């Protein structure tokens, strides 16, 4: 196992998926980290290790936190990237197990970190890496959240009806991680939810729900998002009430709504159903396993 990873115990899972979400640059409105933490809660995932924070964090940029224990003892919580695992195959993941990678985006040694993630995935026989992300965009809060799904593996793009990323510009740890996965022949998919740029610091439960629904469409199964959906309803009501108090913002949101509706009516390409995606994913991974 890579020297950068501190393992507390080794999970035994049969060709699990690895699902990653990082706070920071890749996590607009905390949508991605909220989605990953929800998966951990509903699947009762257990921590089994972490990455060495001394190697990857600038503690002046990502500071440790002092906490009180029972209101008396002070303890320090250091920034770290945690790995957790489901107890086994679970129905919510289409009968698969999962390894969850979460925590702040590293400050240092991205190449070493990405290689360590790939090494961990290989050690645990991971069949697919999925990253969750969220970005600020010119979208209204009052319309369904758009989620893009793309991959760098040409076969995965074709078989699952995804899109090959055409983005050029600054990237985060997720972009580098997908590049390393592609170079090592490890299938990977990236999900990005678009959240309103006028709400950058308001945690977006609707975007987290959309990411989880997209994940369910890909791998089959489904998560219990009842509590998250209630939070989404509160989010919509509170944001709408706040927007209504500002005439300029109300006018701007109306413009975004008209643009969104116009694009929706102009003809969007057919998206595969959840059953189609799950079937194609099974076939792709089976063929990939036969090749190996």
Write up what this structure looks like.
The protein is of the alpha/beta class and about 290 residues long. The protein has a single domain, classed as PAC-like subunit (Rossmann fold). The protein is about 40% helix and about 20% strand. It contains nine helices and eleven strands. Strands 1-3-6-7-2-8-11-9-10 form a nine-stranded mixed beta sheet, sandwiched between helices. A two-stranded antiparallel sheet has the order 4-5. Helix 1 crosses helix 6 (about 205-220), helix 6 packs antiparallel against helix 7 (about 225-245) and helix 6 crosses helix 9 (about 275-290). The longest helix is centred in the last third of the chain and has 19 residues, at about 225-245. It is globular, with a radius of gyration of 20 Å. It starts with a strand and ends with a helix. The model is unreliable at about 270-275 (pLDDT under 50).
